[in-house]
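Human: We require from you a standard protein entry with sequence in single-letter code and fold as tokens, and nothing else.

Assistant:
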Amino acid sequence: MGHTTIEERAIKLSAVKGYAAFVAVAVVLGAFAGAFVWAFFFLMNLGISFLWERVPSWLEAAGMPAVFYPLAFCTAGGLAIGFFQKKAGPYPKDMNEVMGEVKSTGRCDYGHMGASFFGALLPLLFGGSIGPEAGLTGVIPTECGCGGYIEQFKKLGSWEENDAYVPQPGDYIFYDWQDGTDYAATDNKGAPDHVGVVEKVSGQTITVIEGNMSGAVGRRTLKVNGRYIRGYGVPKYGGRAEGGSAAPGAKALAAVDKLAKLGVVNSPDYWRQAVTGGKVKYLDILLVKAAEKITKAGPRSSTPETGVAALVSAGVIDTPDYWLANYSTFPSLDALLRALGGAV
């Protein structure tokens, strides 16, 4: 009996040690992953600030026209990224490649983590994150996953569910690789797996340019209403560049100035910074549309909800759920909605 008790204790002790080791490894790996992600975003923000704010100001002070800087810098960035990929390989791998590796080998090779780190960082430094800063998120949403991307297009009223839609150059095409053989007669509503940008349409043939095609950028051709088409994101390019006169950010800043002169907003500098910093998605669209409707200040709406309802009635907002869900996520956004709602 005593021998059995010792064995039982040894088994229990071994189990406790195994559990403790598992927790310790999980904590260490979690801390490492958190530090890795923090370092990535820290370097990204530091690099973007240096390359797109400080360096242009220095060059402009030295006499270089600011208009030439983005072209020169993006060209240099493209060469740097191409050189990196030639030397290090097509990193980072896309999710399909990683999952395929895990399924076939039962593990994921972390030997190229450094290459993946810098392979992801370089495009962001050289303009890959320019959309929010340029005020383009009201035209082309920002999202990492295809499913979330579709939801963002829907919120903008820019989603085309019909697989048989004939796209235009610049439209976003989403794929579902599990589409059935009856694709021509059914509407694919499966989970999206991939996305590309329509380059041209000739008759019934669509040419798409895509990333992550065997680790590179490539082209794909398919037929209108072809297999695997999940649907289309249709950016409203014209709605944000009427007549090609003013940039979207400039129109939003002009809207802030108008609303300030009318007495609708009391802190124009604050809202200018919010617009130029991309702090609130779709804020630029809200301000531009509101400025088009408002001719004088009025008593503020009693709550953000009544303000949103008034803006919907005036045709300023067509996505009330977004504003109702997010007005508390940015300081004074609720007050802005009340002020605009009372003035329309």
Summary: The radius of gyration is 26 Å.
